[in-house]
Design brief:
Elements (H helix, E strand, L loop, with lengths): L1 H6 L5 H32 L2 H9 L5 H8 L2 H4 L2 H19 L6 H29 L4 H30 L2 H22 L13 H13 L2 H11 L6 H4 L1 H7 L4 H25 L2 H4 L3 H7 L2 H4 L7 H28 L6 H29 L2 H33 L7
Helix pairs in contact: 2-3, 2-7, 2-8, 2-9, 3-19, 4-7, 4-19, 6-7, 6-9, 7-8, 7-19, 8-9, 8-14, 8-18, 10-19, 11-18, 11-20, 13-14, 14-18, 16-18, 16-20, 19-20
């Protein structure tokens, strides 16, 4: 019954457009991440450099999210989606040119990530409008499941493609996916007026978005729990160094990077299929803590099959709690300010991942990749415990006075 309920979202034509465009972009992005990891590690032989480049696919979002996410409220959201996708297609195409200096490659990557901030905010703010009522949470679950599946395919295919052809080929394919996604948004979405009737300057957008999140106890706790998920993403960033540590090759890098998203697919499906709606919010903190436990065993330097299992189980728990936290956050945010609020929250997620993987790379150079992954996981468990307690307290107070709707 739950599976059929999830499928109801595909009856909405505009959601199908967003869904297809997302699949293309996500798969292309994972191809690019594998290509960059192999390219940079191959040039430098440094885990820190490989992790730093991977971090650049996340870290600049803290600037873009807080300063640019307001564009999703100040301009029609369809136009924001189209323009950002086309611009990113051109930039990634330049990155695919042979012999691009590493400094130029990093600079282009920063701009690509910056443009992703208003795109993410526009998409996140538009989705509840396309899927009213409890269809929104179903659509979010479907997007999580299929998006993570696209990551698995992208990572696995990326490893094989880089091994068989070149990193430049993977980057060029990523550029094509951006271009096609932009075309789909332009043709498949209706034009809607901007959401904010009184648009602010970027500085006021920043202040309004931060204040809106910081002054609400429930959203503040949810944001903390979601931001710290970056500590559980470190294995993806260190997949190439870890493969080198155990004597594996480039194709294995893609498989290792695919372990977390594959677990995410299973986690999202199992969570929606078997966890009753009344229990989902209560499990956010528990799952946030549980997601870090399997990664602790990476310190034992397990072989590829065991590492895939451990990293996949972590992905199952992390995606389940993040998915429910996102749904609760969006439902608690008014539509007129949803773009900038989502932008602030999303920028923290991406930036947190960037900081975590950068720290993981430094730790890997100082020790070993396996030790770095385990240390980051331990830090994640500690932070998640604090966030879980804050969420429990805020949720209990809120339900005593103003409970959120519970979907069935």
């Amino acid at each position: 019954m739950a599976d059929r309920a999830l499928g109801q979202v595909f009856a909405v034509r505009e959601y199908r457009t967003v869904w297809i465009a997302d699949l293309l972009s996500v798969a292309g992005d994972q191809l690019a991440r594998v290509a960059l990891a192999v390219l940079v590690y191959g040039r430098t032989g440094s885990a820190a450099w490989a992790a730093a480049t991977y971090a650049l696919t996340f870290l600049p979002a803290i600037v873009g999210g807080v300063l640019l996410s307001g564009l999703a409220d100040r301009f029609p959201r369809r136009e924001v989606l189209v323009v950002t996708d086309v611009a990113r297609a051109g930039l990634v195409a330049v990155m695919a040119l042979p012999q691009v200096p590493l400094a130029v490659l990093c600079a282009l990557l920063v701009v690509v990530v910056l443009l992703g901030a208003p795109h993410t905010a526009a998409r996140g703010a538009l989705l509840p409008e396309l899927l009213p009522g409890d269809l929104y949470e179903r659509g979010l679950a479907v997007s999580q499941i299929t998006g993570q599946t696209a990551q698995v395919v992208g990572f696995a295919a990326g490893g094989l493609l880089v091994a068989a052809v070149s990193p430049s080929a993977a980057l060029l394919l990523d550029a094509v996916t951006f271009l096609v996604a932009g075309l789909l948004f332009r043709l498949g979405l209706a034009r809607r007026p901007r959401a904010d009737a009184a648009p602010r300057s970027p500085g006021r957008d920043l202040l309004a978005g931060v204040v809106d999140v910081a002054t609400d106890r429930r959203r503040r706790a949810l944001v903390l729990l979601v931001w710290m998920v970056g500590l559980y993403v470190v294995p993806e960033a260190l997949a190439a160094p870890y493969a080198d540590q155990i004597g594996a090759g480039p194709a294995v890098v893609g498989l290792l990077m695919a372990a977390d998203p594959l677990g995410s697919v299973l986690g999202a499906w199992l969570f929606v299929r078997f966890v009753p709606p009344r229990w989902r919010e209560r499990l956010i903190g528990v799952l946030a803590v549980a997601a870090g436990v399997p990664l602790l065993f990476t310190a034992l330097v397990p072989p590829v099959p065991v590492a895939l299992l451990l990293w996949g189980v972590s992905g199952m728990a992390s995606t389940a709690y993040v998915m429910q936290a996102q749904a609760s956050f969006v439902r608690a945010t008014p539509a007129a300010i949803r773009g900038r609020a989502i932008g602030v929250a999303a920028s923290g997620i991406v930036a947190g991942q960037g900081v975590a993987v950068l720290a993981g790379g430094v730790l890997a150079d100082l020790s070993t990749p396996s030790t770095a992954i385990a240390l980051c996981a331990a830090a994640g468990v500690v932070v998640a415990l604090g966030g879980a307690l804050a969420w429990r307290s805020a949720s209990a107070d809120d339900h005593a006075t103003r409970p959120l709707p519970v979907t069935t």
